[in-house]
Design brief:
The protein is built from eleven helices and eight strands. The chain is an alpha+beta fold and about 270 residues long. α2 (about 25-40) packs across α7 and α4 (about 65-80) packs across α5.
């Protein structure tokens, strides 16, 4: 997100320079205007990380995406201290958004203009959108260099990005917004596939293994989860307060603190009596 400080008399000059909504410009033109704006105008850019976005989507700390955006907008405005702030409005409830934003502003008397598609209608907001877009694209390039994979633009309309998500969503899970719908769809599909594989795996096991697995399932009510096995000799693993391994030879190993091991044994013994 970005804010740029522009005097009203500069509007015509910037318009002649080609400043418009960043989506309407070529990459080369955005880069050219970015270099000019960042050298000639005071600006403030905020990079919001994936964790903050996920927290907002999940409603943590009383936030949602609109409130998160308002919070970052207020940070930018408080830093730039303009006489007037023109803001691209993300919310359908203009009055509520305005009040939330105003509560975060240091200058309560500042003139605030909130408008949908402000990046199309106002040169100053268009200028900010250009700085934000170029900054975003450069951050994407940094991630590519860090992980050593070219995943394209980072937008799902790009086949490279789509393929990267499919192939690397587990290996590089820290770079993805977990609330991002494409990420959720692919992880849900993977989870359902694992459930199917697990059911087939249980069905194909030895009768004594099936019986023990049924007993182990009761531990899911106590926070335990089935996890991938780590060696070819393991039949099933569970993770919770303890690590529980059922080997292919039928041996059951419970590893953890003594108190937790006793709790597992008690639960399993109770299941045996039933």
């Amino acid at each position: 997100m970005c804010g740029v400080l522009i005097s009203e008399q500069d509007n015509e000059k910037l318009r002649n320079l080609g400043v418009k909504d960043s989506k309407l410009l070529t990459k080369e033109k955005r880069e050219e205007i970015f270099e000019y704006l960042t050298k000639t105008h005071k600006h403030q850019t905020v990079i919001v990380d994936v964790g903050e976005v996920d927290d907002a989507v999940n409603g943590n700390n009383g936030l949602n995406l609109n409130w998160l955006e308002a919070t970052k907008t207020a940070d930018i405005i408080n830093e730039l201290k303009p006489d007037k702030a023109i803001i691209d409005l993300p919310s359908n409830n203009k009055e509520t958004y305005h009040q939330f934003l105003l509560n975060l502003m240091k200058n309560k008397k500042m003139e605030i203009v909130l408008e949908h598609k402000a990046d199309i209608n106002y040169i100053s907001v268009a200028a900010a959108s250009i700085i934000a877009k170029v900054t975003r694209d450069r951050e994407i390039e940094k991630i590519k260099k860090k992980i050593g994979v070219d995943f394209g633009s980072g937008y799902m309309s790009d086949p490279k990005t789509s393929e990267f998500l499919e192939k690397y969503h587990e290996k590089h899970r820290d770079i993805f917004r977990k609330s991002w719908m494409p990420y959720q769809k692919i992880t849900d599909k993977k989870f359902q596939s694992k459930l199917g594989d697990f059911s087939k795996f249980v069905d194909e096991g030895k009768p004594e293994h099936k019986e023990m697995i049924e007993k182990l399932k009761i531990l899911e009510d106590f926070g335990y989860k089935f996890i991938d096995t780590s060696t070819e000799h393991e039949h099933v693993r569970m993770k919770g307060d303890c690590t529980i391994t059922l080997y292919k030879n039928g041996k059951l190993l419970v590893q953890g603190k003594e108190e937790h091991k006793k709790a597992v044994e008690k639960i399993l013994n109770k299941k045996n009596k039933e």
